[in-house]
């Protein structure tokens, strides 16, 4: 009889060997998980992911600067036109008045009613001149900002449904959680939402769908033929409310096995964005919410064993 120092249970010789085999198997599983974690941490995948996010920040900065520059130029042009018009009008009215007053003074030809008329005209022109200084720059707060604020979002609280194991869904940079995004129960109607997934079982003849559908219109509908689907697929296909378009918006479906994609739902701007982290290619689609109403659901599917 032998006593295990780890679990304090007593075993005979036969069961001692079996118990040890179980421990050896658990140890092998730990080594496999450790090596996989070590490979992930020491690889440059995280750096590549950060670079993709950094590129998105740079793009947001560029777009924001362009919006500010364009708006500033528009206001400048309005100010120039308004100032020139007001100045021109004042000069046009002041010139004949100057000539009239100068001539009357030279000829000594003026009376009380002339003085009253000139006084009223001068006061009127003074008021118009002062009115020009009442123009000011106003910061409009109408709930629709010129530049949308961006932030880093921790997706750890996203609801994840495990099924099928046809892709790896990565949240909070964790590549070891298998699930299908297409079965998420949550719907999204505001703000930005980032989903990151990995195509683990992709084959050269696979059908891949990556995009969104309307949650309210997703029940009892063929998931591969949903009329609310907006997104991208293989064979360079872009789907607009369920209708496939070839070579739209310069989209190229350069997909390889184990490719990692980012799918961003920008509900406020009514668009979605897809990025292949390997190729760093990014594509956008504007969503017609009459065709795909809120709330949106991520819709990512892969169908293998297709006949070419």
CATH topology of the largest domain: Jelly Rolls
Tell me the name of the CATH class of the largest domain.
Answer: Mainly Beta
Distance between the termini: 63 Å
Going by CATH, the architecture of the largest domain would be Sandwich
Return residue spans where pLDDT drops below 50 for at least 5 consecutive residues. 155-180
Strand content: 15-25%
Q: Could you describe the largest sheet, including whether it forms a barrel?
A: 5 strands, antiparallel
Strand order of the largest sheet: 3-4-9-10-11
> What is the molecular shape?
elongated
Q: Give the CATH H-level superfamily of the largest domain.
A: SPRY domain
Provide mean pLDDT, rounded: 79
**CA-based gyration radius:** 35 Å
How many individual β-strands?
Answer: 12
What's the number of structural domains?
3
Q: Tell me the number of helical segments per DSSP (H or I, 4 or more residues long).
A: 3
Structural class assignment? alpha+beta
What is the H-and-E element order?
EEHHHEEEEEEEEEE
The portion of residues assigned to helices is 25-40%
Could you walk me through the main structural features you see in this protein, from its secondary elements to its overall organization?
This protein has 308 residues and is an alpha+beta fold. The protein is built from three helices and twelve strands; from the N terminus they run E-E-H-H-H-E-E-E-E-E-E-E-E-E-E. The protein has a five-stranded antiparallel beta sheet, with no helix packed on it. The chain starts with a strand and ends in a 5-residue tail after the last strand. About 8% of the residues have low confidence.
């Amino acid at each position: 009889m032998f006593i295990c120092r780890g679990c304090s249970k007593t075993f005979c010789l036969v069961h001692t060997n079996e118990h040890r085999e179980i421990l050896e198997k658990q140890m092998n599983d730990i080594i496999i998980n450790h090596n996989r974690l070590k490979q992930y941490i020491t690889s440059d995948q995280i750096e590549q992911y950060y670079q993709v996010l950094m590129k998105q920040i740079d793009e947001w900065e560029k777009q924001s600067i362009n919006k500010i520059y364009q708006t500033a130029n528009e206001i400048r042009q309005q100010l120039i036109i308004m100032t020139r018009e007001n100045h021109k009008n004042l000069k046009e009215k002041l010139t004949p008045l100057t000539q009239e007053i100068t001539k009357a003074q030279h000829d000594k030809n003026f009376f009380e009613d002339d003085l009253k008329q000139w006084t009223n005209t001068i006061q009127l022109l003074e008021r118009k001149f002062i009115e020009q200084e009442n123009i000011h720059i106003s910061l409009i707060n109408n709930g629709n900002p010129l530049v949308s604020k961006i932030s880093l979002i921790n997706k750890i609280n996203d609801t994840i449904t495990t099924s099928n194991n046809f892709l790896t869904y990565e949240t909070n940079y964790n590549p070891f959680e298998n699930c299908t995004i297409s079965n998420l129960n949550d719907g999204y109607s505001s703000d930005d939402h980032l989903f990151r997934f990995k195509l683990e079982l992709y084959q050269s003849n696979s059908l891949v769908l990556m995009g969104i559908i309307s949650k309210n219109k997703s029940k009892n509908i063929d998931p591969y033929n949903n009329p609310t689907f907006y997104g991208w697929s293989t064979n360079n296909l872009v789907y607009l409310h369920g209708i496939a378009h070839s070579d739209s918006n310069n989209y190229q479906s350069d997909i390889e096995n184990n490719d990692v994609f980012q799918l961003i739902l920008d509900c406020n701007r009514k668009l979605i964005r897809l990025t292949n982290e390997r190729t760093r290619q990014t594509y956008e689609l504007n969503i017609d919410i009459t065709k795909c109403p809120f709330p949106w659901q991520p819709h990512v599917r892969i169908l293998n064993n297709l006949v070419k």
